[in-house]
TrEMBL record:
Signal peptide: none annotated. InterPro entries: AAA-ATPase-like_dom, P-loop_NTPase, PDDEXK_9. Pfam families: AAA-ATPase_like, PDDEXK_9. It comes from the Bacteria. SUPFAM superfamilies: P-loop containing nucleoside triphosphate hydrolases. This is AAA family ATPase. Residues 7-238 form the AAA-ATPase-like domain.
Amino acid sequence: MKKMIPPVGYEDLKEIIEKGLYYVDKSLMIRELLDSAGKVTLLTRPRRFGKTLNLSMIRRFFEDERNIHGERIDNRQVFKNLAISRCRESYQKHQQQYPVISLSLKSAKQKKFEDAYAMLKKQISEEFRRHSYVLDGNRISKEEKDSYWRIMERTCGNEEYLDALHFLCKCLNNWHGKKAIILIDEYDVPLENAYMEGFYEEMVAFLRSIFESALKTNNFLEFAVITGCLRISRESIFTGLNNLEIHSVLSHRYDSCFGFTEDEVKAMLHSCGLSEKYPELKAWYDGYCFGSREIYNPWSIVNYVKNAEADSRAFPRPYWSNTSSNDIIRQMIENADEETRSEIERLMEGDTVEKPIHEEITYDEIHSSRDNLWNFLFFTGYLKSCGQRQDDSGLYLQMAIPNNEVRGIYRQSILKWFEHKVADLDRGVLIKALENGDCETAGKFLSEQLMDTISYFDYAENYYHGFLAGLLKGAGNYQVQSDRESGSGRPDLLLKEKKFMGKAMVLEVKIAQRFDEMEAKCEEALTQIKENHYAEPLLADGYRPVLSYGICFFKKGCIVKKGEAITRV
């Protein structure tokens, strides 16, 4: 029977399996985790690449889960048909053997430290409540029960929260007779939010204290797995944690555990009868490289397949983005010097840039250097690795934009930046030059703006058309009309003065492949305006006179030529 692709938002493996939904089997990650025997493992991947679902899988496999009465909840059926169930007994013997503390920090996105702190305390207290069965009986002391109640009911002092995970490990160890596993999801979300909202140091201090207590000096810890987007430097929150094993997108271990491989994508499409969609899906959502694996964006794949199941004519579109990361792209574009603008243009054209890689970073250092920004974009999924080299100064990566979806995010960021830039620009110079037939001034103005702008279409006609329309929109007392049907063709741009019997202008855009073609291309544009009678509908509407301009672009230069002014049909 065909299994339904789960709607976006399913983050619990048990729910997916029990509802018979389609699941891309990542259970061999459990074997890899046991083989590595790491005490504390940090796994970094971009947002929405399956980290939460994988931690759910780890929890369901290892946890000796109990209800509030201390009765065991059997989760073995969840793994009955998964790959881990076919592994040898040395792996199977770990199933349902440990108490597990599972904590998600992704909800700590408040604007004030006090509110974010309160959210984290709420998450901790809810995990205490989930394990409240330990309060029954006499396996923990009265004093420990009192402390447990205070944390669970959120009536304790702040200092008790700093040691809360260590304390919960101790209580669980006393009750189960087994050391606890700690799972922390999206550990860096509170840090990213705190950086954006201005209380970074306070949040760093809080998380550092919790992690040091729970992960460094904890004799009741079996192992811990932490997920996040960035590898925050040890000096920031992992101070003194010498047992930390880190695996980023550059690591070969766990390289196929997050995101979908090509075979997994093809199998999903086949199961849905959508195999013919593979080429366009690959162009839009492929392109990541984790370790040595080619990886697809799982969030976008699932969204796309769900839409294509409902409508076979559905087009690919962008589903994946992170608002704060998009803001950092915009800030980089706004503050870009000439070299950075050139590098962004090369990326938009499908080329690569080479940058030194720094795996350890802190959010408050992102803007301290241009290299840190490039590193942030790489580790958050907005750039991919195309190759690497090592020299005496360190590791260098060849980076590129991974796919059409992410390229669209850059394009939108560039367009928003351009809109803000244009809003602050005195465009009256351009309008006045066009009204007066001053082609030299108009061409100079357009060339100057091009030099200060980031292209995103490889100097194609669409790019120049959008550039010119963006400059003219809202400038002066003119209505700008783009690509209107007129006569036997389509003029590129029309400008119509907002008054009865006002002026109008027809602008036809051409691009040259060589500098010495520019004059001829302008003349070609003017001939096209005349032969296709682009002015006639304007004259019929009462506009007098109708001015015509041929405009030619070559890379970041522009020439403007004026045709005859037309006053009658």
